[in-house]
Structures are given as C-alpha cells and as structure tokens.
C-alpha cells in the first residue's frame, strides 16, 4: 500500500507561478537598468563630442582674431561656425618701446567664446579661450 500525499499537492499549487513572476520581475528590472545605463552613456559621449567641437570653434575664433590683428584690421566680431556662435573680442594694449632693440611692441589681448544652443538647453555647451600676442609697431 502506498502512502497518500494528496494533501501536499493541494498546498503546493501556484508555487510555480510565484517563482515565474519573481524571475520575470527580476529580469525586467535588470533590462530596465541596462537600458538606463546605455542611455546615460550615450548622452555623456554626445556631450563630450559637443564640448570638443566647442573648443575647436573657440580656437578657430582665436586664430581668426590673431590673423586680423596681425593684418592691422579690427578683430572684434562674431560669426556662426557649424552651428556654434563664435564671439571674438580683442583689446590692443599700449605700445612698449624696447630701446636696446630700437623697436616697439604692442600686446593684443584676444578672447574667443563658442556657444551651441541656449543656456538651460540639455545640449548647451560653451567654451572660452584667451590669448595674448605681440605685434611690432
């Protein structure tokens, strides 16, 4: 004669469903966390690229300003460059005479800033560079 274990089967009904729901919830949570990490990494990478582009736009503004200053032209201006607003300002300094070399120098201070989008925007980047050059008078 076999023992009757039918009372155990009635207690265990639905346990498989609870275990399956637990596994599904854990896997869904892991997938959601990985998707969020991927989105954050993508946004960080995109922002780093935009910051590098802003630096290069500001550097182009400095180089443009140096070229204009050396040519004796006005170097304060603003322009658009690949979606960036570049603002270049220059301030000529007083001439300094060098008696031992029989010449005089003028120092020109330049400042260039590059901005993409407006402040407060999620993709807003801003870079500012400064330089000082000397020019023979």
Q: What would you say this structure looks like, in words?
A:
- This protein has helices at residues 6-12, 15-70; strands at residues 77-81, 84-98, 103-116, 125-136.
- The model has no long low-confidence stretch (mean pLDDT 85).
- Strands 1-2-3-4 form a four-stranded antiparallel β-sheet.
- The chain is rod-shaped, with a radius of gyration of 33 Å.
- It has two helices and four strands; from the N terminus they run ααββββ.
Task: Tag the structure with descriptive keywords.
2 helices; 137 residues; Pilus assembly protein MshP; alpha+beta; 46% helix; rod-shaped
Radius of gyration based on Cα positions:
33 Å
- The average pLDDT score comes to 85
Number of helices: 2
Q: Mind summarizing the main beta sheet?
A: 4 strands, antiparallel
Termini gap:
118 Å
Helix/strand/pairing category: alpha+beta
Helix residue percentage: 40-55%
- What series of H and E elements makes up the topology? HHEEEE
Q: Spatial order of the strands in the main sheet? A: 1-2-3-4
Amount of beta strand: 25-35%
Q: How many beta-strand segments?
A: 4
Low-pLDDT runs: none
Q: Give the CA-based shape.
A: rod-shaped
Protein name: Pilus assembly protein MshP
Organism: Stutzerimonas chloritidismutans (Pseudomonas chloritidismutans)
